[in-house]
Each structure stands twice: as C-alpha cells, then as structure tokens.
Amino acid sequence: MFFFSLIAIVYFAIRWIINHFIKNGVNKPYKKYTFISLIAAVIFLTVGTIASPTHRSSADQTSTSSRISSKHKKKNASNESKRKASISKANSIKEKESSESALSSSKKESESIAASKSESKEDSESIASSESESSKKQSEAESSSIAKASSESLVASSSSAKKASETSKTDNASYTQNGGWTTAASGMVFVSDSNKYYTSVKNPGNYQYMTQSAADNSGAKPAPRGNQYARP
Q1: CA geometry: angle at 212 spanning 209 and 213, to 5°?
Q2: Percentage helix, strand, coil, to 5, in the chain?
C-alpha cells in the first residue's frame, strides 16, 4: 500500500510540473510529458519493488528479533519467577519440617520428663510406704517385746514377791530381835529394794525376808558393807 501511494504521489507531482510549464507558456506536447511521467513512475516502482524486500526483510527480521527477544525475556522472567517460587516453597517446606521436628522433639522431651517424674514419684511413694511398713512392724515388734518383757518382769516380780511373802509368812517366827536389831535365821536374808541383802536390819518391814538361795536366784547380791540401818 505504501508503494502505491508513493507512485501516485510521484505521478501527480509530475502532472503538476507539466501543468506549471503549460501555464507559464512553455508549449510542449502533453503526451510527451505524460509518457515521461509513466516512465518515471515505472522507474520509481521498480526501485521501490527492488528495495521493498530488503526493507521488509530487515523490518521483519527486526520485528522477529524483537518478538523473539521479548519472548525470551518473558520466558526468562517466567522461569526466574518459577525458580524463585520453587525455592521459596522448598524453604517453606524445610522450615515447616524443621519446626515440626523441633516441636516433636520438645514434645518427646516433655513426655520423657513427665514419665521420669511419675516414676520418681512412684519410687518415692513405694520407698515411703516400705519405710512406713518397716517402721510400723519394728514399732509393733518393739512394743510387743517391751510388753512381753514387762509381762515377764511383772510375772517374775509377782513370783518373787509371792515367794518372799510365802517365805516371810512361813519364816516370820524364824528371825530374832536383839537390842533394836532384827537378825535373820540361818540361811535367811533381808533383801532391800536395791537388790542387796542383809542378815540384820533395824526395820524388817522395809525388806523382803527370804532364803539366801531365793535372793540369789532373783538377782540380789550381798551388800558389800553395812550402815546404821542394815548389816551384811
């Protein structure tokens, strides 16, 4: 379309020049100028046709190159965007996995600590229970032993007192009194509360009167020395 417009412009320009010459008095045949116009138009057309492919090819190449460059830029930008998105997604996944791993590890540590505390508490309760039972059994054993010893001691004391009483009852007439002193019969003694026995005392009511063998069996010992109230 451009070339046809160019040819038309050239044609009308030549016609204008011809008309200008005619108006100014130049008397030349009109056909001759018309022929010259056609020849000039053909020359311009030929030149334009020859130059057109090169220009068009160059323009097409430029346009094609521009389009290719634009496509490459778009493709590169798209690839770069995809790569960045992929890297961002990978980093997000990695951070999420790391966070989940840390959370899982923390949860396991908490469970382990809780289990350890529970086991420690159970062990403490078990030890306390065992110690309580052991203490209770020991206390019961000690109480039983004390009660048994007390009972045996009471029985022994009662038996000794009974024997002493019986001895005293049977042998009261055996000891003799002389000048405020009471002297035990042969084989008999006066046993004090301190488990010491004497042969002569001033107040026989404060002593147990029994045989010397019975005094020895009850754990009494002969007094090492006398005093103003008793003599060995």
Answers
A1: 125
A2: 75, 10, 15
